[in-house]
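Lecture notes, unit on protein representations.

Consider one protein chain, 449 amino acids long.
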Amino acid sequence: MGYQILIVDNDRSYAQALVAYLERHQFQVIIASTMDEFSNYIEKNEFDILLSDITLGKTDISGILKEIKISNKLIEIIILVDSSSLDSAMDKINKNALAYLEKPVNKKSLDHNIAKALTMISLNKKLGKYSQKLADLHKAQNIFQDLFDQVPSYISVQDKNLRITASNKKFQRDFGNELGRYCYEQYKHRTSPCIKCPVKSTFANGKSYNTEEIVTSKLGKQYNVLTQTAPIYNDDNEITQVMEISTNITQIRELQDHLSSLGMMIGSMSHGVKGMLTALDGGIYQLETGIEKNDMKRIIRAFHNTSEMSNKIKKMVLEILYYAKSRKLQYQTLDGFELIQSILSTVNPLAESKRVKIKLSISPSLGNLEIDPTWFQAALAQEKLFTMFFTSKGSKGTGLGLFIAHRVIENHGGTISINSKLGKGSTFQIYMPRVKPSNINILDFPDNN
């Protein structure tokens, strides 16, 4: 099917002469010499080129011609007017027409401008296809970016200089969104590349590498991550960039540490429990023989030893439950001075029995604290060192409470440090945030039932 041309002119006989000429050039041509015909053809919109005067009957159709061009960019308009109306037509339609020709039209001028119109139509159709392809490509790019951002892992793309050229939202949230920064600066807080860099290795041989790393967020929090690298090639099959995908396994490692600690605890305590049961058997034996011999001193000594072993076993079982059970920290807003006073009132009797003098130097206007009071009190009351089985009580302690104390403070977002000198004493410093930190995960923690 050839190109269609609509001729709009009051002079139907002149229009028919144009039809005869154009049909010899394989165009399909129709004429509109009244407003009804014009409106009908415009509604159908079945033409490619419009050869038109700016008046039809007594109606100025220049506004309609402009609307036609605006609504359909593929239609090309060539204005045919008397020489007296040429300037007026240009003023009214302006750039919405491809050309302005005087009637009667010059054949060469008509041929030239129709050929020009066909070229413009062809170019506009191609442009429309390219625009659609570009829109589809842009849509696909947006889908890819959404997938890139929604992946529940840290993703960064690095060039051969180890500078970050792209990253997803999860990476930007925890490590920042600075483009062009060195990867080892961004999430290792280093000043030089890592000794065994998987990205460098991938650049070297194109292979994918898996490593486990410890990275540091922009807030200073450390995460355990599993990383995997993948090369990105250009059209010449050259590696230009490397994608690094890191999965946060911090909670898994913490769980493994917890389970490992439980295993160590069970293994270590089994020996302690065995010794306690042996001592308990000895105490019961002393008690039985004391009763048989009516030896009151032996009975009292046996009762004391049996009671002591029973209390130690009870304490050990409670500490195991403290460590093994879990719940989330239960934050409350409390007056800091009153909280410290309450804790001191709990430990004062024990301190006095050991001839330990407690001095308090704290402002009554300390203000409010957001804290779990039950666990914070347990931490201060049991605070010593931070390993699970350390104890300074000889055979009288399990050491588990010391490890729990460290975990309590740490999971509040605080820190504990110790400075100890033999024969002089020890200084413990506990730093706690005044309000519940918004940037830490509140982890499950031993229950206090």
